[in-house]
From TrEMBL, chain A:
<comment type="subunit">
    <text>Tetramer of two alpha and two beta chains. Forms complex with the iron protein (nitrogenase component 2).</text>
</comment>
<dbReference type="InterPro" id="IPR024564">
    <property type="entry name" value="Nase_Mo-Fe_CF_bsu_N"/>
</dbReference>
<feature type="domain" description="Nitrogenase molybdenum-iron protein beta chain N-terminal">
    <location>
        <begin position="1"/>
        <end position="56"/>
    </location>
</feature>
<keyword id="KW-0479">Metal-binding</keyword>
<dbReference type="InterPro" id="IPR005976">
    <property type="entry name" value="Nase_Mo-Fe_CF_bsu"/>
</dbReference>
<dbReference type="InterPro" id="IPR000510">
    <property type="entry name" value="Nase/OxRdtase_comp1"/>
</dbReference>
<dbReference type="InterPro" id="IPR000318">
    <property type="entry name" value="Nase_comp1_CS"/>
</dbReference>
<keyword id="KW-0067">ATP-binding</keyword>
<keyword id="KW-0547">Nucleotide-binding</keyword>
From TrEMBL, chain B:
<keyword id="KW-0547">Nucleotide-binding</keyword>
<dbReference type="GO" id="GO:0016612">
    <property type="term" value="C:molybdenum-iron nitrogenase complex"/>
</dbReference>
<dbReference type="GO" id="GO:0046872">
    <property type="term" value="F:metal ion binding"/>
</dbReference>
<dbReference type="InterPro" id="IPR005972">
    <property type="entry name" value="Nase_Mo-Fe_asu"/>
</dbReference>
<keyword id="KW-0479">Metal-binding</keyword>
<comment type="similarity">
    <text>Belongs to the NifD/NifK/NifE/NifN family.</text>
</comment>
<dbReference type="GO" id="GO:0005524">
    <property type="term" value="F:ATP binding"/>
</dbReference>
<dbReference type="InterPro" id="IPR000318">
    <property type="entry name" value="Nase_comp1_CS"/>
</dbReference>
<dbReference type="GO" id="GO:0051536">
    <property type="term" value="F:iron-sulfur cluster binding"/>
</dbReference>
Amino acid sequence: MPQSAEKILDHAPLFREPEYRQMLAEKKLNFECPHPDQIVTDQGEFTKTWEYREKNLAREALVINPAKACQPLGAVFAAAGFERTMSFVHGSQGCVAYYRSHLSRHFKEPASAVSSSMTEDAAVFGGLKNLVDGLANTYQLYDPKMIAVSTTCMAEVIGDDLHSFIENAKDEKSVPRDFDVPFAHTPAFVGSHVDGYDGMLKGILEHFWKGQERTEAKGTINVIPGFDGFCVGNNRELKRLLDVMGVSYTFIQDASDQFDTPSDGEYRMYDGGTKIEEVKRALDAEATVSLQYYNTRKTLDYCGQVGQATASFHYPLGVQATDEFLMKISALSGKEIPEAIRLERGRLIDAMADSQSWLHGKKYAIYGDPDFVYAMARFVMETGGEPTHCLATNGTSAWEAELKELLASSPFGKDAQVWAGKDLWAMRSLLFTEPVDLLIGNSYGKYLERDTGTPLIRLTFPIFDRHHHHRFALMGYQGGLRVLTTILDKIFDKLDRETSQTGVTDYSYDLTR
Amino acid sequence: MSLEYENDGALHAKLIEEVLSQYPDKAAKRRKKHLSIAKSGVEAGGESEILSECDVKSNIKSIPGVMTIRGCAYAGSKGVVWGPVKDMVHISHGPVGCGQYSWSQRRNYYVGTTGIDTFGTMQFTSDFQEKDIVFGGDKKLEQIIDEIEVLFPLNNGITVQSECPIGLIGDDTEAVSRKKAKEYKKTIVPVRCEGFRGVSQSLGHHIANDAIRDWVFDKKDVEFEAGAYDVNVIGDYNIGGDAWASRILLEEIGLRVVGNWSGDATLAEIERAPKAKLNLIHCYRSMNYICRHMEEKYGVAWMEYNFFGPSQIETSLRNIAKHFGPEIEEKTEKVIAKYRPLVDAVISKYRPRLEGNTVMLYVGGLRPRHVITAYEDLGMVIVGTGYEFGHNDDYQRTSHYVKNGTLIYDDVTGYELEKFIEGVRPNLVGSGIKEKYPVQKMGIPFRQMHSWDYSGPYHGYDGFAIFARDVDLAINNPVWDLYQAPWKERPPSGRAIAAE
């Protein structure tokens, strides 16, 4: 009997005990009707070949292990960045359970959102009644300052019109006439979560800015972060930098407190976020700066239309991207970059110089959202690394072209390949046929690490199987230090593991590296 | 090891009244029917003793805008019933999200080479684009099946798990499945589990069960030498290895588990099921339909059992053995005796650390009732329980488990659950990922009772030891005493007990 009260074995060791191994072997043999071992081994080997890669990359219809989610997830995340705002997703209710779970598993935090719980009758007659009743219930139960409405694909397919539905709900007194109910149509069959973010953000800005008089406040800047699983660390770091510079800014869509509430006995359904008054005033800003261009294309267009100057970045991380960000902010705000920040920059450079020998020439595969991949590829090249495979399932051809231009600008990018629209099963073939030293991505990459043996560094959403990484900044010079250290730890841990066999490899088990 | 206690019905009635007062009238009227206090029921002894009545409305539509915790039919079919069948490729047919959010989240353990002969922790999606909505996705589905056959030739079948748009745009996934099944001589199962069907996961289970009946049974000649002690385990999804910790016991008492549905299952195990002598059903809610069908059509009897906690395990093993006669009964007594020292050691270690602690549950399927006695075996008290997607027959079965005064909540809303937990202040809450963090913020220990909080198994004797350890480590961790800053009132209670 493997189990005992003194030393309780859970799944990982328990099923390695002989009783269970034998039981599972017999189950397979007697009841599973498996393929012969040799055939399985052969097929496994075949998947590592160039021939399989070609078939794999030739796929046109089937998507396997994509690195993207659907629009409403981005909308729910966007709404979480505003003061006392409840997300209301119009359509089937199961979707909302999924968004909430997905966000909670990453942030290890509550994630609130409600659904209009449409079922078959609503599919036939439309979901107006659901929205009218739903808004009334949400308003009364959850005491929000704003309800941000987005849609599931069900509501989109049947063509429910949010604008007229919300007007109807106000007519029926679900919420007071002057209560803020911004909305965005977020069809899951168009784009990805980054577009849902864009749509919801634009919806919120339009709701507050449309028809309002704009009086430009010189030198003030709006900052929009984009969909970012590291918003907790990043937003706080960026605000610190802007404060150090003395910039007059509004952080629009700030979920850093919402997804990092303290444990002190009180459950805060709402915490932090951009205040509604701030959003209204943000119309007057001289400029709006997006930290992630591919998350905010429509929003930036709109900001331009109301007369603001706009600028955008690709997840400002590492040295040159942070330089550019700060210089742009300095130019827009008229504030100098203070000496303290120059020293921070110097400390990051110092760290990179200290470690350069371990990083030079390392090959990387990088996947994630378009802006993140761009940022990581750029930083990797700054450390002397080579971004061999750059993949974004939700990357467009414009992204591909822009990234290729970046890669062409550095000798470290000359062998890099850009994979727009491909998924992680394609990445598996890439890693087998053109291996790299390190894989940068999220938790889903662990299956690639298992299959191909490429060490995985988790640096982007979602991270389910490691805790608290998102609480630390990746952006800015401080963030650069964090990224640098994370990469180095992975390299050193691997080296130690490979050199730790007593009397065999441990001559290289160096105390100092 | 029955534990005698009664819950504070008056407090619970007051809490119900308070939450209802916060709803708009129309919603309050509807929610009222889902909330109740278990009342002392029929006095009787024996197995079917009814401890109390749990009289609530269930399995009806959730109210819009209240933050129901429920999922959808797709979650019930792909997520629960079909997803764990390991040697088939399950296509999430429609937009990318559904498959993405449910990817690898239920911890249905299996053995196999993923991507080669098994496909459990993979996300296959047709990633619908606007043109697929406009022009239909049937052609795309055909092409997807072709591509699967090229890249994953060792798959033993395919299921097509329909997401919301499929039913709305009028695609004929049945016709595509039929055509392609013929072409490849493979089992291809279309499942009409669009998320808008029904009121929760529950209809998805039913539709998935029906798909087994209509698209798997009697479709192939199943070569199989049936034996006198053949059983199927139905409704064990092998979460954290639950089905394995159960199988080992059933084999020890002399039975042959010829199919496990659907954790760690292959299609062959599903196909041969009608040849077994008995269906043992653990999650009644998600798989009773197919058991009833197998009984009607193939004469396979079925019985429910409960492998959570030693009291129920012993009772269940004896009931199962009774079905097979003296030889199995004799072995069963030996197995119970063999594990008794483990049970005694686990209980004597953990009961003193947990005795009298109160628990609130809110889960799905079978757990709101099945796990109650496991807690009671550790001396703990269940003060409230409820189902995400239970039906009337679940609540009837719950009456055999809960004590007088227990708070009962069906399809609870986020608001209600928060207020109930605040009002009751239990020592532990067992529910899901969406509930975990709000509860912990309040300073109340929590265990996820869907995923076993990444631990498990919890079934069987081996699982009970893990369950006891996990409950102890949740409740007796020192962090709960650190919530108050010392300069802000209340010193720590010193309740934590170090792990042994």
